[in-house]
């Protein structure tokens, strides 16, 4: 599995959704609704590529529920990164490989 995190834009989502074996997730929403983050991470790791929007930067929400969802999203991202053979952070369209190597194009 390749786990990609960072800002995802609508144009990128449209392209990525056409890739077979890809899952694009709003990690904060998935994690907030999940009863078991380990089980969710295991389900998502079955995909070849998992892309998740980064939610950890910026101002910490005042609402306790939003803070809890953000914390769960961070924990889910850590679980996914641990399972992934390759982890890539995208920033301004520039990939930074955090773990493993990108496969040849």
Automatic annotation (TrEMBL):
Gene3D superfamilies: P-loop containing nucleotide triphosphate hydrolases. Keywords: Kinase, Nucleotidyltransferase, Transferase. This is Bifunctional adenosylcobinamide kinase/adenosylcobinamide-phosphate guanylyltransferase. The keyword Lipid biosynthesis does not apply. One of its GO terms (molecular function) is nucleotidyltransferase activity.
């Amino acid at each position: 599995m390749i786990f990609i995190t960072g800002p995802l834009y609508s144009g990128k989502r449209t392209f990525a959704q056409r890739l077979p074996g890809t899952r694009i997730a709003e990690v904060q929403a998935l994690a907030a609704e999940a009863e078991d983050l380990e089980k969710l991470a295991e389900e998502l790791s079955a995909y070849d590529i998992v892309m998740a929007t980064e939610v950890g930067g910026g101002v910490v929400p005042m609402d306790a529920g939003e803070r809890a969802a953000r914390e769960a999203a961070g924990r889910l991202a850590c679980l996914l990164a641990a399972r992934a053979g390759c982890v890539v952070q995208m920033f301004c369209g520039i990939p930074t490989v955090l773990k493993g190597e990108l496969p040849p194009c």
